[in-house]
Amino acid sequence: MSHLEEETIGSKTIFQGKVVHLVVDDVRLPNGKTAKREIVKHPGAVAIIAVTENNKVLLVRQYRKPLDKIIFEIPAGKLEKNENPDDSALRELEEETGYRCEKLEHLVSFYTSPGFSDELLHVYYTDTLIKGSQHLDPDEFLEVAEAGLDEALQMIQDRRIYDSKTVYAVQYLQMLALRKQLENE
Amino acid sequence: MSHLEEETIGSKTIFQGKVVHLVVDDVRLPNGKTAKREIVKHPGAVAIIAVTENNKVLLVRQYRKPLDKIIFEIPAGKLEKNENPDDSALRELEEETGYRCEKLEHLVSFYTSPGFSDELLHVYYTDTLIKGSQHLDPDEFLEVAEAGLDEALQMIQDRRIYDSKTVYAVQYLQMLALRKQLENE
Q1: Given the DSSP bridges, would you call strands A34-41 and B21-28 parallel, antiparallel or unpaired?
Q2: Which residues of chain B does A22 touch, with a Cβ-Cβ cutoff of 8 Å?
Q3: Which residue of B21, B113, B155, B156 is the best one to mutate when testing the A interface, meaning the one whose CB has the most A CBs within 10 A?
Q4: Is the ipTM of this complex over 0.85?
């Protein structure tokens, strides 16, 4: 065991919900003392940076209860049980936006809040969209929108775009635009 | 009320921990039906993209119990009660890395997991580091490291960098490098 690791000496499940489970572990610290760790277990999720033929990014406008705010996010959703992230990304893209795609590239996967949760988010990119049909979950209410890069940057300033995956996505598009500029010089 | 919003009709606190609180709300959906929303309340946090005079980014190597993994992250930490994010960023930078700084720029703030948590992360940038002294919390065990841009990109590939704020930070540095290249052409 590394000198940084913590040893689990006890574990208690506090709550098992539809989205998250809450577990509190007792751990032995590297210095021999004990501490409690609060852990929010999550099935993992996918998000898709989807660019239209007019070079706009697809967004969904959605009310988020934890924030009590309506914000614009890239399409995303939780993994279903035993679902492969690639399949999940294709499914969520079509369910939420009504678009399918020809090619979907996995960009990166990251833990959203490693201090207290194991939620792992898989991020994808596509610019090969094809019209399909939207079919939302019964308790899902959202509107599809589009934004060009300048508009999306403004939306970050205005806090209409306000979450990590979408801020990451806009920065990714900013980087693609800079690369294109460099190629053309 | 917008046609996307949900009305709270009940709320139950399940758990009040040191880091998170768990609340389950009953809501009325836009279609009149009811649903439960699981909400992880968090005090908010800060993270600092800190670049040394040798153009390397400061990282902390740390065990994360929720992941059961040791990963490299940019310095970060929770807001203390009534603490201003700017003050928190200066405090966390010095506590974790032993560096102070002359100028600290707020880049962006984002919700890390808007689907189930209200954790808001404030991200800062500095390249004006001054040696101070590290002083960790009693139950905090971490090692300070540095990485150049190419190395940091490799660390994302190797999943040694594996969390949203640090992946965002590396992409930010990638963007700065591209801008510099454009200026020099």
Answers
A1: unpaired
A2: 14-15, 20, 22, 40
A3: B113
A4: yes
